[in-house]
Amino acid sequence: MKNRMIMVFVCCVLACSGLFSGSALALEAGGVDIHGFVSQGFIFSEDYEYLTNNSKNGSFEYNEIGINFSKDLSDRLRLGIQLFSRDLGDVGNNKVTVDWAYGDYRVKDWLGIRAGRIKLPLGFYNETRDIDMLRTNVVMPQSIYADLLRDTVIAANGVGLYGNIDLYAMGSLDYQLVAGSMNIENENGFEKFFNVSYKGMFVIDGHSDSEITYAGGLRWNTPLDGLSLGVSALTNTVDSPVLIGGALKGKNSTDNTAYTVGVEYLWEDLTVAAEYQQYQVEYTLTSPMGSAKGDQTTEGYYLSAAYRFTDLFSLGAYYSVLYIDKDDKSGDNFAFANDAWEKDLALSLRFDINDYTAFKVEGHHVDGTARVNATDNPIRSEDKFLYGVAKVTFSF
Amino acid sequence: MYKRKLRLMLTRLILVTAIPLLCSQATAGGVKVITNPSTSVETVDDNLVKNIFLGKKKTWPNGDHAQFVILSSGDTHKSFLQTYVKKSSAQFKNY
Hints:
The complex is a heterodimer. Chain A is mainly β.
């Protein structure tokens, strides 16, 4: 009830901003900048429930709502917080969470210090994935930016350093280092992602704990205007209570490490990006019957392009490839061979009705069921399927 | 995240003003970036402009605090953002 009241308040703020009258503007109260967004989507799919648990019939349980407040306390010190809510089928259910909240003290351009709930550098776009207006596509490439993990990997509670180092003729270098603890909530998608990853060998059976997460990112803004190269890494250990074979209680401890490299090129109205990621998991499964160890390296990459033809219309596309186990790309050891991969070809249309309203429609042709949830789809014998999304986003 | 809202008051001013280019190579959307005369910098390159407007740099090379102003809308505003910041108006306002 409390959450609903908060979101009603968010909607009232949006309405008061003039958003729905087409004269949107940011709010400022007592020197506090207030911004927000409401993004409502519709998702439909054939053959499989995908991303949500009810997409085959078409579902509106696909939204994101957020509001943030920030204030410059001085030239160097800034405070900010974002409240966020999303619905992704049976995930999220519009529970309000603190997406990020931190104090940011800028000592020099090359050195800033943050403390609080800090966004994590994980690929080029993890830190901006909450800002739908920044991209042409609706669904980000699931090979690297899995929607089920969005709330888990968006930020960590801890401290961070960041800055921009001038390399003069060689461009500049952005860096970020973060050490903190992740909030792992089953209902925010972690449980479904976990169960998909292990394809029913064991399922999560309680609350997971994360030890300190370390993350770092470098982005080289090269002398070639618009070209940047990036690398990021994240590592942590997560302990999860599990149920093995539907009856035996145990614990799964995973050491997780993700490496991502990428290139982005912006030229006039064209944006081209490609990223490659390896996500290594070493797990130890402990139960009264003994313990077992295993490891797996998931490989993902994508190539995307978007072009803004006019102020009104943009077109985007990407091809995203994921292999759950890079040493078993043909799926020899999977219950369904096509669980081993996902190859997603997406085409997106974006219409900017004004600076504060965007409408997007997107189609996907997917080969492989690596991201198809086993609980929602016990039989996954069909290797190819289609899905589509439409979404309207208001922001101020 | 740094500039969900544009700051208008300056200590050391970068004044971004649209000046239609008069030379033959100019395009309709051409813009120039100028700084307040009291600013200590002698030259401002594209990368510095981009970094200031994206919030990556808060100071001039000599350490003085830098702030900017920008037109709020219009073709010149869009052209500036596209040329220097590499973002559309909608993207910039939501960055």
